[in-house]
Amino acid sequence: MEQRITVEITKRDKPELKKEEKQDRAPSGVSSNAISCTKCGTPIDLKDLEKNWFCCPQCDFHMPLSARKRIELLVDPGSFSEFGEKWTSTDPLNFFDLKSYQDRINDIRAETGVKEAMICGRATISDHPVVLCVMDFAFMGGSMGCVVGEKFVRAVDIAIEERRPLIVFTTSGGARMQEGILSLMQMAKTTCAVQRLETEKIPYISVLANPTTGGVLASFALQADVILAEPEALICFTGPSVIKQTIG
């Protein structure tokens, strides 16, 4: 017998901001804390940008968000409880380019204030309990290594144990080359975890933020029951810069 699942998506109201004509420089009255829209170049005061949910009031382009800020905007206040926050990457290959992998990781942790490219936890959204995973592109391009793969699998375990829907926000350049084949193995590992969600009939929602590429896209990002994406987000396996370097 066919079963139909109805998913209700609640969009919180955001205040309407008056659109202004595009300008090449910040207009009078805009503070020095203004930034330019990545797409249309319109200068936007940071306070106005936050009021508009970090979308450009001129062209509605979705600006980059840190994982912490995305969680803050999405979940009910005070409801997020993180797990796996102490898990950190090792250096299985003793990888070295301009600096050692471990030194690079330490520098990025100090710069971003997060320990890995994915933050996971329990939360409620409009009083509905969920398991939430959010990737952070600022942490090594949101690349997937052993810790990201293990966090995703742990999130699946909790979603099944507690019968909570799993919601994942992806923004990633793909697998983390500094961890070699162990990073690529996470593609198979996370794919198998998604299959367990299907077997247990646990809803899985994937939200593709800009950009979502490579091994993350080819594994758990595109296997959800419901797949959403930011408008005009770069969604691909191989990015345009790589293609340009290889075939011109």
Automatic annotation (TrEMBL):
Q: What does this protein do?
A: Component of the acetyl coenzyme A carboxylase (ACC) complex. Biotin carboxylase (BC) catalyzes the carboxylation of biotin on its carrier protein (BCCP) and then the CO(2) group is transferred by the transcarboxylase to acetyl-CoA to form malonyl-CoA.
Q: What is its main location?
A: cytoplasm
What's the protein called, per UniProt? Answer: Acetyl-CoA carboxylase carboxyl transferase subunit beta
Keyword presence, Cell membrane: no
Q: Name one GO molecular function term.
A: ATP binding
Q: Report any Pfam family annotated for this entry.
A: Carboxyl_trans
Per the record, the GO terms for biological process are: fatty acid biosynthetic process; malonyl-CoA biosynthetic process
Biased composition (Basic and acidic residues) is annotated at: 1-25
Domain of life where this protein originates: Bacteria
Task: State the residue spans of region: Disordered.
Answer: 1-31
CoA carboxyltransferase N-terminal domain residues are 33-248
Q: Which organism is it from?
A: Candidatus Hakubella thermalkaliphila
